[in-house]
């Protein structure tokens, strides 16, 4: 029986779910962290493990890569390797890929015992004894990272699967094996950016709280969050460019729209919680935390869009000047209309005028120096 990457695997006996559970346990991390590693919605992983949802072939392929186990073993085939059908499986490109990708070189994978001629399938020793994988390990995350980079550079609708495959040094069939279509790729890229941003926020707040000066001060935590959202570094700009595509796609796609709603709910809740703590500490005025968080996050979004647009406009202007050599426009694009410093200063001014209590001193110059946020 052949399965395409988007097919859901029948698992009425729960055997596939049990094998996946073993892989998750062997990874030495939480179920949510494992879901992040395989670029999967944690709730979908949870439902699949509990038997209320079936895994797709692509999801099992990513789980096999992350757990360093054989996809055929996860599928319950009689062979140690998930085996493809078709001539491309024997090609040099397929041989260079990982075992699970080589099995998917034609975009299909079989769980049929009759199609497998390799040794009996058993759980590799890595399932029961292995070092926990780093989140960056595996082909799926390489695909997602390259997708994020290409979306940031060219926009989602200009990026082809062939472009992603070329960036990863893989075949298009291998890409489809892990992510059946462009929609799944965008969702995975967005989810990865969301997870990275959430993890960075948590780290930044923890570091701010651990500092000697202003330890636990909500005003300091909020400044750190604002610095984190200011697109200074290449990574920050790349993520913001992906967000811009997300906003456009969220209006057209139900799946992406749900991700958008979930992400902003989490983000606004984080900001509201910091404001709420600041009110309790006496460093912020007695304002409505949720409404204040809504206003502040909207301001962040608008300013970040201006920073990115200004930077792109400045590059275009500079390029035109270099080509034309016109002296009367020299320096016109040297400084964007709205730069990262302008954005951060405007955000601090908003906090100062709308949130800070009169007893709280204004942020010093040292608070502005946070370029390496991600």
Automatic annotation (TrEMBL):
What does the UniProt keyword field contain? DNA-binding, Repressor, Transcription, Transcription regulation
Which superkingdom does the taxonomy of this entry point to? Bacteria
Q: Where is this region: Disordered?
A: 105-134, 318-343, 355-374
Q: Where is the HTH tetR-type domain?
A: 137-197
**Acidic residues compositional bias: what residue ranges?**
357-374
Write down the DNA-binding region ranges. Answer: 160-179
Q: Return the InterPro entries for the record.
A: BetI_C (IPR039538), Cro/C1-type_HTH (IPR001387), Homeodomain-like_sf (IPR009057), HTH-type_TetR-like_transc_reg (IPR050109), HTH_TetR (IPR001647), Lambda_DNA-bd_dom_sf (IPR010982), Tet_transcr_reg_TetR-rel_C_sf (IPR036271)
Indicate yes or no for the key word Transcription.
yes
Q: Which PROSITE patterns is this protein grouped with?
A: HTH_CROC1, HTH_TETR_2
Outline the extent of the HTH cro/C1-type domain: 20-74
Q: Where is the composition biased (Low complexity)?
A: 105-129, 318-334
Task: Give a Pfam family name.
Answer: TetR_N
Q: Which PANTHER family match?
A: HTH-TYPE TRANSCRIPTIONAL REGULATOR RUTR, MYCOFACTOCIN BIOSYNTHESIS TRANSCRIPTIONAL REGULATOR MFTR-RELATED
This protein's name: TetR family transcriptional regulator C-terminal domain-containing protein
